[in-house]
Amino acid sequence: MTARILIIDGHPDPARKTLCHALADAYAAGAAEGGHELRRLDIATLSFDFVRSQGEFEHGTVPPDIAAAQEDLKWASHVVVMFPLWLGDMPALLKAFFEQTLRPGFAFAYRPSGLPETFLKGRSARIVVTMGMPAFIYRWYFRAHGLKNLKRNILRFVGLSPVRDTVLGSVGTRSKPEIARWFDDMKALGRRAI
């Protein structure tokens, strides 16, 4: 079955020399091999500011790059989010992207019950996080709170499900063969659109 895949490369460095960029490239290559349709957003190249008030979040003007990203999200059947762990969470630019993009009226609506009406149902997601610490330490000792926040409180909140994750740890000490296996794994995930 052909999927419509949107890759959100959440690394804020536009130089495209990072592991996240290379992993996104590998996933995209696998998706192309699998015959899937593909779009890609590189957060570092988009033009938008931080949301600074509740009023702006709920009623502010949507920047053109964010409006285009919203169209990509509506188009997608599967969303892949890749980012490096910075201070235990996603980089601020990626969080700002989600705050700009997943606004009320587009991604959800408030209901009197307090539970949201979600508008992005019918889409699955995969989160890929890279980090310097060992992955098991992040999951066990730190409880993967940044990953859980994105998974539960952002993506599932607006309707995406299932949301799977891949945590790649100890990136600074991995051998070339180990990193090559990560690229192979990303290609395989892309081929299967999961």
Question: What can you see in these coordinates?
Answer:
This protein has 194 residues and is of the alpha/beta class. It has a single domain (4-192), classed as 3-Layer(aba) Sandwich (Rossmann fold), CATH 3.40.50. It has helices at 19-33, 54-59, 64-75, 92-101, 135-140, 145-155, 176-192, and strands at 4-9, 37-42, 78-84, 108-109, 117-118, 124-130, 163-168. The strands form two sheets. The chain has a five-stranded parallel β-sheet with strand order 2-1-3-6-7, with helices on both faces. The model has no long low-confidence stretch (mean pLDDT 97).
Q: CATH superfamily, called what?
A: Flavodoxin domain
Mean pLDDT: 97
Unreliable sequence segments: none
In angstroms, what separates the terminal alpha carbons?
Answer: 12 Å
CATH architecture: 3-Layer(aba) Sandwich
| Helical fraction | 25-40%
